[in-house]
Amino acid sequence: MKRLYIRFINPFLIEGRRNFKKMAAQSSCNYDALCANDTNPLVHVRKTLTEPVYEQYHAHYDAWVNSQSGSLMGTKGFIALLAELPKKLKRWHRKIAEVFDEDSLEFGGIFPNGRNDVYRGSYGQRLSKLHSVATEAKKYPELNAVYEEINAFYLLLKNARSNKGIKQDTKDTSSAALDQAYDAMGEMLFLNMLQLTTIFIKTPEVVGNYFDLKLLRKPKKQDDESDSYILPLPANSKRTANISFSSNDSLLLINNGTKSIYFYAAATADAPTPDNLTEIPAGGELEITAASLGAPANKFLIFVNTDLMEEGEVEIVLV
User: Fold this and answer.
1) What's the CA gap between 31 and 104, in Å, rounded?
2) What one-character DSSP code corresponds to residue 116?
3) Non-local CB neighbours of 283 within 8 Å, separated by 6+ positions
4) Direct distance between the N- and C-terminal alpha carbons of the chain, in angstroms, rounded to an integer
5) What pLDDT does residue 20 have?
6) 181 near 60, Cβ under 8 Å?
7) Could you count the other beta carbons within 10 Å of the beta carbon of residue 128?
8) Whose CA is closest to 140, among 91, 105, 88, 94?
C-alpha cells in the first residue's frame, strides 16, 4: 500500500524543501508549452486555468529575486538577467497581442520598432526601451497584469545594473505570499500533469513535452543510502561533506539557502581554502562530474559560507 501511495505524491512539492528558482523554471516550461499548443481546446482549458496562478507566482518570485543582494547583483548578475529578456519579451508580446491587434495604434505604441528592437543597443538603451514598454502598457487597464510583470523585471534589471542590493531579512526571504504562490503553482503543475495524461491517454509520452524532465529526475540511490545528503553551513564557516563518490559519478549541488555558497575539492579535509572557489548562487544548482573535481585524488568536497550573519544549506545528490 505504501509503495502505491508513493506513486501519487506530488513531485512538484517536496515536503520541507522549497526551491523557488526551480519552480520558476518548471512553471515557465509548462506554461510556454500550454501556450504553444493552445489550439487544442482541452489544452486551452489548462492554459486558461494555469495563467493566473503562473502570473501570481512569477510576480512574487521576481519581487523576491529583486530583494536579494549578492550574487544576482553587479555586472555578472545583470548580464545573466539580461539573457532572459528575449524569452520574456516573446511572452509579453503574445499576451499583448491577445488584447490588441498587432496592426493597431495601441500595439504600435508599445512596440514602436518591433519586439526585437527592445533587445538592441547598449545596456542603458535596452533598459530605457523596456521602461518605455512598461510605461505604455500601464496606460491600458486590460494590460495591468502584463504591466506588473514587465515593470517588476525592469526594476530587477535596474537594481542589478546599479549594484544596489537591498538587505534581505531572513524571515522575509520566504514571505507568506511567496510560499502560498509556490504551493498553488506546485499544485497546478501536478493537476496539469494528471489532466494532460488523460488528454493524451493514448500517447502519454506527449506529456513529457509539457515539463522539464531534468527537474523531475529521480536521484540515484544505493540500498543503504538516502536520496540526498543535506549539509548545514553555519554563518562564516567551512564544512566538509560526509559523502563518498567515485571518479565516474556526477553530483547535483543545490543551494537551499538565501545567500551564495562556495565549494572546492581537495585531497585532504584540512586543505587550505584556495582563491578560485566555485560559486553556487542562492536558490541555484550546479551539476558537476567527480572527475572534474579531480577524483579520485581529490576525495573531499568542502563548502564555504562567507556570510557573517546567515546560515546556509547545500543538498548533494548523486545523479
Assistant:
1) 27
2) G
3) 19, 20, 21, 22, 255, 256, 258
4) 27
5) 83
6) yes
7) 13
8) 105
Residue that is written with C-alpha cell 491577445 in the block: 98
Q: Supply 275's cell numbers.
A: 582563491
- Distance (Å, rounded) from C-alpha 90 to C-alpha 24? 17
CB 252 within 8 A of CB 285: yes
C-alpha cell at 13: 512539492
Q: Which residues pair with 315 in a beta bridge?
A: 230, 254
Is omega for the bond preceding 204 within 30 degrees of 0, making it cis? no
3-state SS, residue 266: strand
Helices (runs of H) and strands (runs of E) counted in the chain: 10, 8
- Which residue type does 184 have? A
Q: For residue 254, what are the β-bridge partners?
A: 285, 315
Q: Which residues, 6 or more positions from 154, have their beta carbon under 8 angstroms from its beta carbon?
A: 127, 130, 131, 134
What are the residue boundaries of the structural domains of the chain, listed by start?
A: 13-213, 218-318
* Mean pLDDT along residues 261-279: 89
Q: What percent of the chain has pLDDT over 70?
A: 82
What does the alpha-carbon distance between residue 256 and residue 106 come to, in Å, rounded to a whole number?
A: 43
DSSP state letter for 233: E
Indicate the helix (H) or strand (E) that contains 280: strand 278-280
CB atoms near residue 179 (< 10 Å): 13
pLDDT tens-place string over residues 277-302: 999 998 888 888 888 888 788 888 99
Q: Which helix (H) or strand (E) holds 317?
A: strand 312-318
Here the cell at position 30 is 509548462
pTM to 2 decimal places? 0.50
pLDDT digits (tens, 9 = 90+) for 47-106: 999 999 998 898 888 777 766 544 444 545 666 677 788 888 888 999 999 999 989 999
CATH class entry, domain 218-318: mainly beta
> Partners of 302 in the beta sheet?
240, 264
Q: Which pLDDT belongs to residue 141?
A: 93
